[in-house]
Amino acid sequence: MPSGLKDRVAILGMGCSKFGERWDVGQEELMVEAYLEALASAGIDPTQIDAAWYSSHYDDIGAGKSGTPMAQALRLPNIGVTRVENFCAGGTEAFRGAVFAVASGSADIALAMGVEKLKDTGFAGLPTASRGTFVPMYLPTHTNPGNFSQLASAYSARHGIARDDLKRAMGHTSAKSHANAVANPKAHLRKDITIEQAMSAPIVAEPLGLFDCCPVSDGAACAIVTTPDIARGLGKTPLVTVKAIQLVTSNGWEMQQGGWDGSYVHTARIAARRAYHEAGVADPRAELSFVELHDCFSITELVTLEDLGFSAEGEAWKDMLDCTYDIDGRLPCQVDGGLKCFGHPVGASGLRMLYECWLQLTGQAGGRQLDAPRLALTHNLGGAPAQNVCSVTIVGTGER
Amino acid sequence: MTGIAAIGTYLPRARLERSSIAEAVGWLAPGLARSASGQRTLAFWDEDSTTMAVAAARDCLSGSAGRDAGDRIASLAFATTTPAFAERQNASVVHGALRLPPDCIAQDVTGTPRGALVTLHMALEAASAALVVAADRPVSRAGSADEMQLADGGAAVLTGAGPGLLAYLGGASLTSPFADRYRRTGSDFATVWEERWVREEGILKLVPDAIARALGRAGVGAGDIDLFVFPGTIRGIGSAVAKKAGLGNARIADTLAARCGDTGTGHALLMLAAAMEEIEPGERILLAQFGQGATALVFEATEAIAERRPAVSAQLDAGIPERHYLKLPVFCGLLPWEKGLRGRGGVNEALSVAHRYNDALLGFVGGRCRETGAVQFPPSRISANPQAPLADTQDPYPLADRLGRIASVTADGLAFSHQPPACYGLVDFDGGGRLMMEFTDPDAQAMRIGDAVRFVFRIKDVDEQNAYLRYFWKAVPASAASRAATDEADRRSA
């Protein structure tokens, strides 16, 4: 077992653009918005950045499949910029690259950026993406609501949950995130909804209705990481360090073999186990102050609460209805509104989650600031329940 | 001695009520009201002549005669007047889906609905193991008689060296440039001439002549024919031909007009199959069809006919009534409709990739690890079994005739579909392996986790820009009967 990343890399600064339907800007301006905030919060000069990672999923919006769009948008000082894609987990992948660079000693300061400009594609919902040559010859024409509605059907079949009960729990999940986002000026959707509204919304893919689905948003988020020593030298306190980053990729077992019943996300369970080990977390439900999960759909959040060990199997929907995951509950979840309301610019979301962790851990979260949080987790999922990339990242203050 | 060893048919599940056609376009063609009774089959959006030919052939080959013929089928003829591709042999697609031997000669036969009987005649004279499949999905003008009377479906026969179910006694084919209808290459619709002229100068002159020659060659008297099978949309045409040909004792086979319509090239075989549910051993059957000439074939039912009856009545009974007239022009591509951004993209088929995976894509052949027994689709060099990711241990493993069970479902209102919502989910194959598959047919939305499914060959994607059709396999509900048969087979093998 490798010794891991724990406390070897610190977050020096972060930035995040306003998320939403940003008709006013392109992906270049979105990146600049996040970058300038990150640079200011880090208190460094661009020439101090040694290397950069850039995450953007869709290639049909002029972003290009290389590092040049970001190098040019930010006018970086001829450093290496690596573009990464890993479905919706690309933001965490970019962060992982920057962290690895610092941990390896090849960079003192590294930058990670995630961006997605979706609202120039003309699509409501995610655009149809190229799937290559062979796969579309046999896989159904699918969408993410379709893929994740299968998680809902299998989860309710496995645990014998009545449709109305599941719809109510999913409705609570979304209503809670809407309530949280009202206090977040950068969020895409800042409007309270009722559980009943969520339950009676038009169906997108049974049983997922409109309010069970996150919006498609434009946005960018950025992290600047360094060694704990350099961060301390720059006066960063409290110091937020990386405790664990684990990324798990499906190998086809769920999709091609019969052992998986579709009611959970196999990779999430593995990623969580490895991340808790790496971070030295024994009791995640007690030790974590709050969590930012990949709530692309309300059902994803519910199932993930079980996959990460916060709720017992088949119980998350009850815990959700018991307000366990509300902002004043035992384990606040999606404090910033999550994908559901902060928004989901695909390549940026993993970094957006870390942005909220960093704000909260450093006491900068304004009207939604939690009381003295110390340890936070992000869960960033790319792909579909049957075939995906799942990452779990833990960050915190203080040496543990 | 040669004969028909096996016969199979296919009817699409949807049945368009003719009254709904009259309601929609009767104002244009008031005469339609007179023929607005009953139903006609309506191919689903993902069916064409090729997929229906495959379905009929699979039905034909599913019995013991088909299984015995297996690798010895020497030739395949696909007869249709509505070929999906003008270039790219459609029979080669049928051949691939049926996984026929590589040295099986295949040909497309087109130009006349008589094509199936012409080819059958040739196969019987050659006494070879031939598979003749026929299917049509006609495209007709709104408000035309064709739209009411013609229908979608397919049929297939297997000939063999022995007498089979129907022993062949003799036959005749006449060729004539008599054009009752024509459709120039590139034109969407046929032009037809006056029905009375077709009847008097065409059918009633050419068909009795062919019948007389066939009976002469068979050494059978006209009065010895027990059943006359003759498709045609002209009212009473079978009886008129029988009278003219002196078939004094023959029953006239049902044209299936009320519940099905005339399915074109396969219709003589479909009517024959329907009649074969009740034919007695020893009965003599005259099978004939008209079209730029006439073909007449004489058979005698053998004792074997009582052992394997076709299931046309079950297929007729399995219909799902449809009252949305517009599905007809939309499914046929006659009516432009708003597909949205998600429906705009082209398929841009990489033909080289499709060819590399022909066995998987057309034949639905997966892989089975010979060390662990793990089954997967598509096959790959390294096994999908994470406990034993062995390299180069997979044997070809056909999946088309297996059953499966649904492991997850969705009805996706966002994904592009010709019949929203798009229904798909994970399907576990009996014997291992799973695949995310599309569910199809008008009742796809009723499919649930745990339901048994079987697999059908259909159009996967339509590329309007490049005029391409992509085929693959989809899941439909398995009948209780096929489920029970498979469970029984599993018990026996266990």
TrEMBL record, chain A:
* Pfam (any one): Thiolase_N
Q: Domain named Thiolase N-terminal: which ranges? A: 20-227
Name the InterPro entries on file: Thiolase, Thiolase-like, Thiolase_C_2, Thiolase_N
Using the record's annotation, list all stretches that form the Thiolase C-terminal domain.
Answer: 265-392
Q: What is this protein called?
A: Acetyl-CoA acetyltransferase
Matching Gene3D superfamilies: 3.40.47.10
State the Gene Ontology terms under molecular function. Answer: acetyl-CoA C-acyltransferase activity
| NCBIfam families reported for this sequence | PRK06157.1
Say which domain of life the source belongs to: Bacteria
Fetch the SUPFAM superfamilies from UniProt.
Answer: Thiolase-like (SSF53901)
Automatic annotation (TrEMBL), chain B:
Q: Spell out the Pfam families in the cross-references.
A: ACP_syn_III_C, OB_ChsH2_C
Q: What residue range is the signal peptide?
A: none
Q: A single Gene Ontology molecular function, please?
A: acyltransferase activity
- Looking at the record, the residues that make up the Beta-ketoacyl-[acyl-carrier-protein] synthase III C-terminal domain are 216-295
Keyword Acyltransferase assigned to the entry: answer is yes
Going by the UniProt record, its keywords in alphabetical order are: Acyltransferase, Transferase
Which InterPro entries does UniProt cross-reference here?
ACP_syn_III_C (IPR013747), ChsH2_C (IPR002878), NA-bd_OB-fold (IPR012340), Thiolase-like (IPR016039)
In the UniProt record, does the keyword NAD occur?
no
Q: Which SUPFAM superfamilies match?
A: Nucleic acid-binding proteins (SSF50249), Thiolase-like (SSF53901)
Q: Which GO terms describe its biological process?
A: secondary metabolite biosynthetic process
Q: Which residues form the ChsH2 C-terminal OB-fold domain?
A: 404-458
Against PANTHER family, the record matches this protein to: 3-OXOACYL-[ACYL-CARRIER-PROTEIN] SYNTHASE 3 (PTHR34069), BETA-KETOACYL-[ACYL-CARRIER-PROTEIN] SYNTHASE III (PTHR34069:SF2)
Q: What is this protein called?
A: 3-oxoacyl-[acyl-carrier-protein] synthase III C-terminal domain-containing protein
Print the organism lineage: Bacteria, Pseudomonadati, Pseudomonadota, Alphaproteobacteria, Hyphomicrobiales
